[in-house]
Specification:
Elements: H1 3-11, E1 16-19, E2 26-31, E3 34-40, E4 47-51, H2 54-63, E5 68-70, E6 79-83, H3 89-105, H4 109-116
Antiparallel strand pairs: 1-2, 2-3, 3-4, 4-6, 5-6
Amino acid sequence: MNIEEFRNYCIQKKGVTEEFPFDEHTLVFKVMGKMFALVPLERIPSQANLKCDPEYSVTLREEHDGAITPGYHMSKVHWNTLFLENLPPKLVLELVDHSFDLVVAKFTKKLRSAYDALS
């Protein structure tokens, strides 16, 4: 999977925006203002950081040694770095969904209400 395919999947999700809050090279995807994915655009090979359940992170890192690592410049417990070209596209999309769902599940009542009101 390349960065464009990754980006297209992320931005089609409900309530998602993309921005460059850190620098002009790090694309961040947020759902209702909360980060769920980061993509360092100048990194080769292509990479993405995604939020992940801590126990699942350990399993993924063991099963995909070298292709999924602790989150680069992120909490090593809650974030993974994925080397996109080294993973099956279906798995990458599942992990995007997992990250997105983790963030949505932690919404406050007010934020959840605003999210639910989106079409």
